[in-house]
Amino acid sequence: MRKFLSIFLSLSLLILPAEAKETKYVALTFDDGPSGKYTRKLLDGLYDRGVQATFLLCGYRMKDYPDLTQRIVDEGHEIGYHGYTHKNMQSMSRRAIAQELEDSQTLLPEGCRPVFLRPPGGCCSDAVRQVAQVRNLAILGWSVDPRDWATHDTAAIERAVLKNVGDGDIVLLHDMSDSSVKAALDIVDVLLQKDYEIVTVSRLVRIRGVRLRSGQAYSRFPQTTKNS
User: Fold this and answer.
1) What are 25's strand-pairing partners?
2) Catalytic choice (32, 82, 169, 174)
């Protein structure tokens, strides 16, 4: 009888389901666009891979590329504010900052309501925070920055991201050059192979159960983040 029980327990262990892997999430963000052919190439690649990203758009570029702005929304990506002129907001008055947002808002596709502001260069100030608070916007930073705008070395961009990225990170990229776009799509391929799920920042916020506070800055959303 004892031998029978031993065999039964051994067989039971063999058929137990394997422990499920915990999903890792990362958000890719793209600043300064839309930029014409580079944004088109990026959107094509993201679409083929079934991946959504967050685009921090400049108003003057949305004015030049309304079709791409609409496509970003239509394909399930997220749009955030990056100012109208891309000028440094750190030295601007509250009125000037508010005007940057208002001018950008008029160019957004119908129904698009951004929840994030990323000041150009990440340069923040009390005035930026106050305007963001009044307009119910969180300030979006980043936790991984390969400085892709400063190099045309695709491999270097990829290494800088893949060496440092982890669960809950927000990666800063740009869709302003072939090297950046190629690197971004290569990064997506590698992360997908490593069982990451690539999501918009807003979806990452929901997954992690974070309650955004207007005017507050966020740079990543790791598993340990608690409701705030």
Assistant:
1) 197
2) 174
